[in-house]
């Protein structure tokens, strides 16, 4: 019997499109976010990590019905580095023969971004044109959770998040670091498309704590995945003192964040999160549970984050009033209110 008009319970959920994003950490332990334009087809007007959908040039991805489609793989890593380059102009590539990071002039990078985005060449081919032994620098990428869009959303994604640490000043190739925006500096970004439109208006490095403050004050729009990951990053990279920490302190904070990424049950490197409404809070915000991995992974041992929840107010396609809390505290408050 055909489903009745308006009976959404019978509508088959959209297949999640594979995508990647990078939580890029600067030499000063700040985080890069991009401001998407209001006409964007996803996360319009929001601040997001660099990233996007996988393409054929990134390598073969498992079939839609294969649970391995939702695991870290070279295709996701290649897409993460390629999309970062297309969207921000920051190039993560290495000379395989020497191990040195590849430094390309701003003029050549801008030309390359346009050519790759317009499918005039592939990222790999463009790299080889500059140096025969050049390859995307995918090995340092650290998986930092995967997010699968809930089934009630028409456009769904299976997004592999990664951490990537740009070299600290003592380790840095000066020519590479000189190309990266400084703290709080804006880099105007125009990503070419088929019709000459603009997808990203600016890219900026700021401390994770400052991004969180701006989101909570309503200055910028941020969605739960970005907010939660910045919340976690901030706990390690924004410890006191925040002003001009020593090189040793910067190194220690990075090491603590990496250790955290490999901790938990499951560890954050393997968590797969498909947010699910848990309840409504007393102030009208939605409380999102993060422990469900999504229907695509039903029957597998994949799991999400069991201990935290995200409070959020969804309004007219935006997310406001975000907050990360412990799930146990939410239930404790509910029990107290029922007394």
From TrEMBL:
| Gene3D superfamilies for the chain | Nucleoside Triphosphate Pyrophosphohydrolase
- GO molecular function ontology, one term from the record: hydrolase activity, acting on acid anhydrides, in phosphorus-containing anhydrides
Q: Which organism is it from?
A: Aspergillus clavatus (strain ATCC 1007 / CBS 513.65 / DSM 816 / NCTC 3887 / NRRL 1 / QM 1276 / 107)
List the lineage, top down.
Eukaryota, Fungi, Dikarya, Ascomycota, Pezizomycotina
Named cofactor requirement(s): Mg(2+); Mn(2+)
PROSITE patterns membership: NUDIX
What InterPro entries does the record point to? NUDIX_hydrolase-like_dom_sf (IPR015797), NUDIX_hydrolase_dom (IPR000086), NUDT19 (IPR039121)
* Occurrences of domain Nudix hydrolase (ranges): 15-228
Full protein name = NUDIX family hydrolase, putative
